[in-house]
DNA sequence: ATGGTGGATGCTCCA
């Protein structure tokens, strides 16, 4: 089974890229974030025609929005709100093959890394804490569970273009890295991409739109993640970060991240 | 220290 997570930054603008996306990833399951469209206007038929007829969509007007599009059937699907808001930042499905998938879009957190001065940053920290608590409260650590998404945190020094210069920049501050680590520990999640790419090696999944030449300046961050529960660790077969997507016209500022799991 | 771009929306907010 191949599973791809991608922050599409408007799903309607990426429809033209779907054949290339499918060719590049071979995904059986897509988990998208920032779909930016209400459910009634989601291009469901396009995905269905391409074979992704099983769909769990949680969108809203303007912002956020997540979706899971799958060739594999669902046994059930769900979505929940976090931090007492009804932002569409989460969807989950359990496939008929038994694998449970959670798709997250964590709040970006604004510009100022101080929860007292910036309520968006406070929201982000609260979201990370609540998510850790939620997975920590699950009764078993034994389910075959995959958690993906734009988690908006780059945890390792090699997940950013300059560790020193980004210590004060939202996405790489010590408090965010600590809370992301607690979330990972809450279910003993394994970082499925770093399982294949050593921590010494730089790896990014996002490059700002604001660079004149994103590839030349290469000031990236790894904000998009795939985690698996311990029982799936030995079933991991491959991981891929598909950089060429950053040059698709028009591009998302994130690229697709794919993991292959024996299923 | 600042500004740089892009998306949805509707003349601004969010990332």
Structure explained in plain terms:
- The protein starts with a strand and ends with a strand.
- The chain is built from 6 helices and 14 strands.
- It has helices spanning 18-25, 44-49, 119-136, 163-166, 174-186, 214-217, and strands at 2-7, 29-33, 54-58, 66-70, 74-78, 90-95, 100-105, 145-150, 190-191, 206-207, 220-221, 224-228, 236-241, 257-261.
- Strands 3-4-2-1-14-13 form a 6-stranded mixed beta sheet. Strands 5-6-7-8-12-9 form a 6-stranded mixed beta sheet, with no helix packed on it. A two-stranded antiparallel sheet has the order 10-11.
- It is an alpha+beta fold and 263 residues long.
- The structure holds one DNA strand of 15 nucleotides.
Could you tell me the number of beta strands?
A: 14
SS strand fraction: 25-35%
CATH topology: Deoxyribonuclease I, Chain A
Main sheet makeup:
6 strands, mixed
By secondary-structure content and strand pairing, the structural class works out as alpha+beta
Strand order of the largest sheet: 3-4-2-1-14-13
Low-confidence stretches: none
- Cα end-to-end separation: 6 Å
CATH-level-4 superfamily name? Endonuclease/exonuclease/phosphatase
The portion of residues assigned to helices is 10-25%
Please give the domain count: 1
Mean pLDDT: 97
């Amino acid at each position: 089974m191949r599973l791809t997570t991608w922050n599409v930054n408007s799903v309607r603008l990426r429809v033209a890229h779907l054949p290339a996306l499918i060719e590049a990833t071979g995904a059986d399951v897509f988990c998208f974030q920032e779909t930016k469209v209400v459910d009634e206007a989601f291009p469901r038929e396009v995905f269905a025609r391409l074979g992704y007829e099983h769909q769990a969509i949680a969108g809203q007007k303007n912002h956020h929005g997540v979706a899971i599009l799958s060739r594999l059937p669902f046994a059930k699907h769900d979505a929940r709100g976090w931090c007492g808001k009804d932002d569409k930042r989460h969807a989950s499905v359990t496939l008929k093959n038994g694998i449970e998938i959670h798709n997250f879009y964590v709040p970006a957190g604004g510009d100022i890394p101080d929860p007292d001065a910036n309520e968006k940053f406070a929201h982000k920290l609260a979201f990370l804490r609540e998510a850790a608590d939620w997975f920590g409260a699950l009764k078993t650590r034994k389910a075959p569970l995959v958690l993906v998404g734009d988690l908006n945190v780059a945890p390792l020094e090699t997940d950013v273009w300059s560790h020193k210069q980004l210590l004060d920049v939202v996405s790489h501050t010590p408090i965010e890295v600590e809370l992301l680590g607690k979330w990972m520990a809450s279910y003993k999640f394994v970082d499925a991409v770093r399982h294949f790419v050593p921590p010494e090696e730089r790896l990014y999944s996002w490059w700002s739109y604001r660079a004149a030449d994103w590839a030349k300046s290469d000031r990236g961050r790894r904000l998009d993640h795939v985690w698996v529960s311990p029982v799936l660790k030995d079933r991991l077969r491959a991981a891929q970060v598909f950089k060429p997507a950053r040059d698709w016209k028009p591009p998302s500022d994130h690229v697709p991240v794919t993991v292959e799991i024996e299923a």
